[in-house]
Amino acid sequence: MKILITGAAGFIGYHLTQALLHIGYKVVGLDSVNDYYDPNLKYDRLFELGIPKMQAKKWNFEVVNSSGNFKFIRTQLEDMENLQLIFKKEKFDVVCNLAAQAGVRYSIENPKAYIDSNLVGYFNILECCRQFKIKHFIYASSSSVYGIDNEVPFNVSANTDKPVSLYAATKKCNEVMAHSYSHLYKLKTTGLRFFTVYGPWGRPDMAIFLFTKAILKNEEIKIFNQGKLERDFTFIDDVIESMVRIVQSGNISNHLYKIYNIGNNQTVKLMNMVNAIEKSLNLKAIIKMMPMQPGDVFSTLSDSESLSRDYGFKPKTELKLGIEKFVKWYKSYYQ
Length: 335
What we know:
The chain is 42% helix and 17% strand. The protein has helices at residues 11-23, 39-48, 53-56, 80-90, 106-109, 111-131, 166-185, 207-216, 236-249, 270-281, 305-311, 319-333; strands spanning 2-6, 26-31, 62-64, 70-74, 94-97, 136-142, 189-194, 197-198, 220-223, 230-231, 234-235, 257-262, 268-269, 286-289. Helix 4 packs parallel to helix 6 (111-131).
């Protein structure tokens, strides 16, 4: 199979690309490498995949690694004309759409970025999948779609009509758009609701990354809602194992349209997460308690039984082990 991964320079996209290349697939990666967070981290991820930094910076320029199994193109999904040329030339079997403008809080400050990337760009990918008869379209959704009204654990059958951030609203739109394409054009679509993914090469705007950085610099960390928050933290290796199985097995359900939770099935109190980082660093955090942030939810917990039933795998990495692996990478990367 030849597989397209959008957002290939991103956290999950990088790890998925690496895993699929290791198995032996040919992969084409697209990414705009925007400056939402330090682009150098994205270029370093690409370098790990065999793409030189200077070549990766060129727009709409094809760069192939030395093994010849990974091609990278820096482009925007909003560029429909270029996207169609890529689809026509490459003849993909499977598309994994991980490109998106991420971040709940940033969606309050810069909502247009979410419309451009998460709606316009997403539509362009979806439409190309229809035009070029892609066998399976896999896309990133988010646990944010559950909002604040649902009881935990979150089940994929729960009502998700009340998002509390624009980011969550765009992810809900992605799911609805995929459903319409599955219904109208018989396109097989699989949506993945990720639950707080963390690990080596992670995003600098995520709490575990921010807290590790601040504690090492002896700077204060901000704890929202006075620490009374809970999250289902999901280690990156578990996310990638789930996705690889879905890529390899295809859509094995009897439905053209399917959604799965990708979560660790455990809820962790925010302060317990902080304590785990402190123990791994052997340092104490300077804590500043803050009120609840707009767009945040109080608790997340995944019901991943359908993933386990269909693909024989359920995320299970304990937070302590995951944080130890992240801290080891962080110290190595930032010396």
